[in-house]
Write a structure and sequence with these properties.
With about 400 residues, the protein is α+β, with helices and mostly antiparallel strands. It is built from 15 helices and 17 strands. Among the domains are: about 120 residues, no CATH class; about 50 residues, no CATH class; about 60 residues, Arc Repressor Mutant, subunit A, CATH 1.10.10. This is Sister chromatid cohesion protein DCC1.
Length: about 400
Amino acid sequence: AAMRSRAEVDATLQTAKLNPAELLPAVHCLSFGPQAGGGECCLLQLEPGLCAELEAGRSLVIRGEKDEHAVLCSKDKTYDMKIADTSNMLLFVPGCKTPEELNADPASCNIIHSQIAGFSKNYWELRRCRPKLKKLRKLLMEDPYEGPDSQKDQTSTFSKYTTEDLLSLIQASEEEILHQLQVIDACKIEGYWRILDFDYEMKLLNHVTQLIDSESWSLSKVPLCACLEELGSLEPREMIEHILLSYGRKYVDDAGEVFFEMREDKICRAIAQMLLQNAVKFNLSEFEEVWQQSVPEGMKTRLDQLQGLALVDKSSRPETIFLLKVEDLPEDNQERFNSLFGIRQKWTEVDITPYIQDLCAEKQTVGALLTKYARSSMLNGVKVYNSRRPIS
């Protein structure tokens, strides 16, 4: 392209009825460079926090398998990626100076000839989203660990997963994945992440609670060393320690000895699951009696320990209770509500909350979710929620 002169620029301003006095003296004359196809350029809009991550030399990773919607992850957050179209053509001009930079540098040349290196009509927009962690449990549940003597473990054809494998398969940031592994009580066995088979987990827990009982230890002061000493001949020591970490809070006393304070709610919950998993429905009052008798001496069972694990049916006579685990429900909001309204037509907010709490976005409340996906009505003076759409 021929270089423009100042006279030509002024003539163009006059034709456009623009007053040069109101403009900066510097002029960008743009021309398309030979490589200005723009096809190989992608624009990504970053919030300041993510920009700082990149500037500090850290990586952002795009995760997802071929059939999944791509997400972008920093070290500790997950973002949905969506293409945003713009009505304005976006031009890439290397070394382009902004008005602020031109103002700060009065010596800048009067006419700046710039080549356009590429252009785009859209950009990737990021929206903070919930990490997609359902798959993590699903992968690990393909092959739960049944203990060192299990024949199944020697012959299993299922894949086993290292941290690296999970990072490439799960659409969540590294910190979110590692946190979730803790939440689901996964443990590393020979370098692979495993979830204990529920029956094996109960066997380990039973060994520990029986030992506490026979030694008359306080539930808030269970010594690690003595547990490993006594139970090490029955099960691997690292499994005994894992079960103490899962069902207790670790602390060190003044003498430097490691103790565990057993978590009553979690132990009661696990024992309830064991009792409920073999029955479709259980008479509520009978269940409460058997449950209290089954937990370690000194522990008190309460129905609120079963939030997101079991549901009481108050409408049946006599009242019943049945297993309904939040982790077995769909991850997608609409599918979750469809599935809940398929199980029960009308829900009170108290009953439905444990089953939708995990769907709340960063600053969202359960009330806002219910407003969006359910409609409310009054039933015998109690507010209940039912589906906004017919459930097939």
